[in-house]
Design brief:
By secondary structure, this protein is an alpha/beta fold. The protein has one domain: Aldolase class I (TIM Barrel, Alpha-Beta Barrel), CATH 3.20.20.70. About 40% of the residues lie in helices and about 30% in strands. An eight-stranded parallel barrel has the order 1-4-5-6-7-10-11-12, surrounded by seven helices. A hairpin with a 4-residue loop joins β8 and β9.
């Protein structure tokens, strides 16, 4: 059985880790390189860095950060935010990132998924999908959840898998920031219909939520931010409890 992964997510703005609710009321959560090293030492399986101010100036800062993170940590890490070209991905991977996460750019030009998978391999390509459930239908949203579309979550997830995505990072906008648990019903549906790993995002508030997403939601990995940044759930304790519930994790 494949081990389940615990993934802290670091939102980066102007070279700092920030945390807010729906990208507003941001508060500083620390230096990303220091946090990355800390998480690696505490037993995180992977890290995700999302550049939420993906302007050209921020991009240079992010590249520098990627270099420093690669020097400090020995676990895989993914970088996302404003990525829309093969060239940009090439630079990030050469600077030390293991994977890249694309979201709005994939919706605007789906061929990008094919191009990245063909050039770098599917294992490098994570497609992030932000979706909101409205009247029982899950619709994809773009630009950090600010632009609604008529695209169906499940149809889009199937399409990107067929185009070569190696993983899906699904964030439920209904659950994000609520700390009421992950969108396990939708996650289980994704897991049943796809052959690639699903990362659950949005809603982590306590240890039980992680147990639920790995059992009920059939998730392959669980991503969270504030519960880790502000040490509400220490990763070693989380993994110990998961193990006690017969959920396979790397200790």
């Amino acid at each position: 059985m494949l081990t389940k992964r615990i993934i802290p997510c670091l939102d980066i703005k102007n070279g700092r880790t920030v945390k807010g609710v729906n990208f507003v009321d941001l508060r500083d959560a620390g230096d990303p390189v220091e946090l990355a090293k800390q998480y690696a030492d505490y037993g995180a399986d992977e890290l995700v860095f999302l550049d939420i101010s993906a302007t050209l100036e921020a991009r240079a800062t992010t590249l520098e950060m990627v270099l420093h993170v690669a020097e400090q940590v020995n676990i895989p890490f993914t970088v996302g935010g404003g990525i829309s070209s093969v060239e940009h991905v090439d630079t990030l991977l050469k600077n030390g990132a293991d994977k890249v996460s694309i979201n709005s750019s994939a919706v605007k030009r789906p061929e990008l998924v094919n191009e990245l998978a063909e050039k770098f391999g599917s294992q490098c390509v994570v497609v992030a999908i932000d979706a909101k459930e409205v009247d029982g239908n899950w619709k994809v949203h773009l630009a950090g959840g600010t632009i609604p579309t008529e695209i169906d979550l499940f149809e889009w997830a199937k399409e990107v898998e067929e185009r070569g995505a190696g993983e899906i990072l699904f964030t439920s906008m209904n659950h994000d920031g609520t700390k009421n648990g992950f969108a396990n019903k939708a996650l289980a549906q994704l897991s049943d219909m796809l052959n690639i790993p699903i990362i659950a995002s949005g809603g982590a508030g306590n240890v039980q939520h992680f147990i639920d997403t790995f059992t009920i939601g059939k998730s392959d990995a669980a991503l969270a931010a504030s519960v880790f940044h502000f040490n509400e759930i220490p990763i070693p304790e989380l993994k110990k409890v998961l193990k006690e519930h017969h959920i396979e994790v790397r200790l």
